[in-house]
Design goal:
Growth Hormone, Chain: A, mainly alpha, globular, about 300 residues
Length: about 300
């Protein structure tokens, strides 16, 4: 929301890309530092170090980040009625009460969605839920599958680190392409690519362990590259589809559905992998991804 409030509409994709780049760099550095510290400290000490780091980060944000100033023009009340000047004194107080979150605020947001956007944002919400469910059906059980193929913990960590670095180094390219092509179209194309990647992981059952590991390594790199596009375009498209003045609520709704998709994907992926095998989970994920892509196609066609 700070990006929305502090920058014009034309800068949202660029600033979201920069924000995601810094997040990716921080994640990669955190992974490396965490591994190095584990060589010296136990987990309890490590959690204490990182919780202190998080508190310092929160304090820095509190001291340095300021909400944008909103200017209000106050016209004088011209009246001959005695004591009506009291109204002037409580104008800002009334405005403050009006800005407090309430159930009516959420209700008005829902009505605004139905009135202004027909089905675009609800369809997009459903698509986001399905896409993140599919992703986690593939990536949550993947480390166990890699161990089954014979990879060590160190190699699995290295693969996921490469996946993160691939995303981090692609954000700038993603922003330029998204700006030229459009958020909805990029989401449609990139999620299609990711669906093919999920199906590609499923065919590793037909390969010998060495070839399967090579294919999964390629998939993880491509998944990182595609995530840079998807992560930036998904937030920007939410802002684009949301009613004016309700971008924060729209982003909150999207993040809630992403969290639901993460949980459902982990549960379904774990169940399918344990019951039928990992490749079945990947094939089901590709199917769910296809439904999400179909919803995005409807949105991009509007």
């Amino acid at each position: 929301m700070l990006i929305v409030e502090l920058h014009s509409r034309g800068e949202w994709e660029k600033k979201l890309g920069e924000y995601n780049t810094y997040c990716g760099v921080g994640l990669a550095i955190g992974l490396l530092i965490g591994v190095l510290l584990l060589l010296v400290f136990n987990f309890q000490t490590l959690y204490l170090i990182f919780s202190t780091t998080a508190l310092i980060s929160a304090l820095i944000g509190f001291l340095l980040i300021r909400d944008p100033v909103i200017s209000l023009e106050r016209h004088p009340i011209v009246t001959t009625v005695p004591r009506l000047g009291i109204v002037e004194r409580v104008r800002i107080w009334a405005l403050s009460i009006h800005q407090l979150p309430s159930f009516s605020t959420f209700s008005n947001f829902r009505k605004r969605l139905r009135f202004s956007l027909t089905q675009d944002l609800p369809l997009y919400y459903l698509s986001v839920f399905l896409l993140f469910t599919a992703s986690n059906m593939v990536f949550v059980p993947l480390p166990l599958y890699l161990r089954y193929l014979g990879l060590s913990g160190s190699l699995i960590f290295l693969l996921y680190l490469i996946n993160n670095l691939a995303a981090t180094t692609t954000y700038r390219i993603a922003v330029k392409r998204i700006t030229k092509t459009g958020n909805a179209r990029i989401m449609f194309l990139i999620t299609g690519v990711r669906g093919l990647l999920f199906a590609g992981v499923a065919i590793t059952k037909l390969l010998n362990p060495t070839h399967a590991m090579v294919l999964i390594g390629v998939v993880l790199i491509l998944a990182g590259l595609s995530w840079a596009f998807m992560n930036t375009a998904s937030s920007a498209l939410t802002l684009e589809l949301s009613p004016l003045g309700h971008q924060g609520q729209a982003l909150g709704g999207m993040n809630a559905l992403i969290g639901g998709g993460v949980v459902c994907g982990a549960l379904f992926g774990g169940f399918l992998t344990n019951t039928f095998g990992y490749y079945i989970s990947c094939l089901c994920a590709a199917g769910i991804q296809s439904v999400g892509i179909g919803l995005l196609r409807i949105i991009s066609g509007h």
